[in-house]
Known about the structure:
alpha+beta, five-stranded mixed β-sheet, 2 helices, elongated
Amino acid sequence: MSVRVRLTRVGSKKNPIWRVVVADQRSPRDGRIIESIGHYNPRTEPSTIVIDKERLDHWLARGAQPTNTVKKLMRAEPEASVAEVPAEPAAEEAPAEAAPEGTAPEAEPAESG
């Protein structure tokens, strides 16, 4: 069985929205799939591309071949193609010019003129 990572259309008439799926190459475009790993909406500005990187790597490691369109999507949005939880924010450091705790910062004098 030859497995492909390809697109399946799920949008309505004149409103194309695509799912990124893993499927047997012999199944029809909108037919039977093995797993859905993301989606692509070309109608938003900018285009929405979401691909689960972990599952994509899983299938590529097992010999799945991405179609040319999926390759382009992976190259077009490498940082957006990763569907993951955002990293924890770095520890906030107090600015060097911050007023000590318990005191109000001084307001700058207004220019007269």
